[in-house]
Amino acid sequence: xxxxxxxxxxxxxxxxxxxxxxxxxxxxxxxxxxxxxxxxxxxxxxxxxxxxxxxxxxxxxxxxxxxxxxxxxxxxxxxxxxxxxxxxxxxxxxxxxxxxxxxxxxxxxxxxxxxxxxxxxxxxxxxxxxxxxxxxxxxxxxxxxxxxxxxxxxxxxxxxxxxxxxxxxxxxxxxxxxxxxxxxxxxxxxxxxxxxxxxxxxxxxxxxxxxxxxxxxxxxxxxxxxxxxxxxxxxxxxxxxxxxxxxxxxxxxxxxxxxxxxxxxxxxxxxxxxxxxxxxxxxxxxxxxxxxxxxxxxxxxxxxxxxxxxxxxxxxxxxxxxxxxxxxxxxxxxxxxxxxxxxxxxxxxxxxxxxxxxxxxxxxxxxxxxxxxxxxxxxxxxxxxxxxxxxxxxxxxxxxxxxxxxxxxxxxxxxxxxxxxxxxxxxxxxxxxxxxxxxxxxxxxxxxxxxxxxxxxx
Length: 458
What we know:
By secondary structure, the protein is of the alpha/beta class. Helices cover 45% and strands 15% of the residues. The protein folds into four domains: 6-135, Response regulator (Rossmann fold), CATH 3.40.50; 154-317, 3-Layer(aba) Sandwich (Rossmann fold), CATH 3.40.50.300; 323-392, Helicase, Ruva Protein, domain 3; 411-454, Arc Repressor Mutant, subunit A.
């Protein structure tokens, strides 16, 4: 039930207070249903699927255990619902039982006018929260493209280029840092191409076994070698009529580069142990997080293979260069993970979102997704992710945000915070290797050791 179908369920001994408090339907409200409490069957709540429960304890012949039992039934009937308990003004014991049972609010029944105002305010607040959650997919319309989220100029340009190159027959080379979504781009190209009915075969080139790479790529005949007990189809043959995605192409050995070049040029190969040539119609999409032009210059990657792969090039922007997409991505991952983990978290506090946008995300979109998943798994009933829930590296960014004029830190103190932060991040980027970290920071190794001791960095 979306936010426009907002149902209220009133549980109590009589309808009198319900009629007084909710005299007129609240805008967007479908119905307000009354159930006798505690005499009704709690299973009826599942049929009503309410969004807001009001449990009026005043005058109801209930026992203490009924409070927790009915609150649990409300939660089971609708995980997104809110539960308001109305109690007598002198009933502190019932207040304790209600809060312990999981109620969202407890309101004493003193003045019906005040109760009416509070109930309507709480319902309006909850409706706004539900609308934020349910309308989020609508607000993302135009920002979701083939499983990729982004409204920045860089991503819109990337989406446009994908649509341009996908229908062609040219080989595609995708370059970008780890975690930027290169495989998503490859899948989008395949789905939008004329080969979409064929197979998309994904190969991690870094995992190709140097000794049997030809068997993996081109297959083998039965008896071709000791363990070849049956004929095996290779990756190229499996991708016939479709797309072959060669991920981490920069990691292939010189020997494999020669083999790949020959097949990509001639579209023909032999299975290991085979005598008949096999022709294939395959489009190659390759991806790498390395600078292939630099590898060519260093003699570590064949120039002719580079040109064969780079029929059309796509470069994926790192997340730090499109920070305006972070709120969209964070909300997208939050909703997806919340549904999978059955959590009721709906968003972020402004400070938490501010920290996510300030962090530089060396692991790019993959790191952001992992962070949201990690935080969500630890949530236990919270509705919003706060800054305190974020991991330490992200929380440290709060010290690096722009000066707002209200702080009392000296310039020296602020500079030390920045220096300590960048030393930690450089160490992390280089796997704790202090020599490479010192070279990256352009300071001596001895100078790095002194600064690490000063800032208590280990």
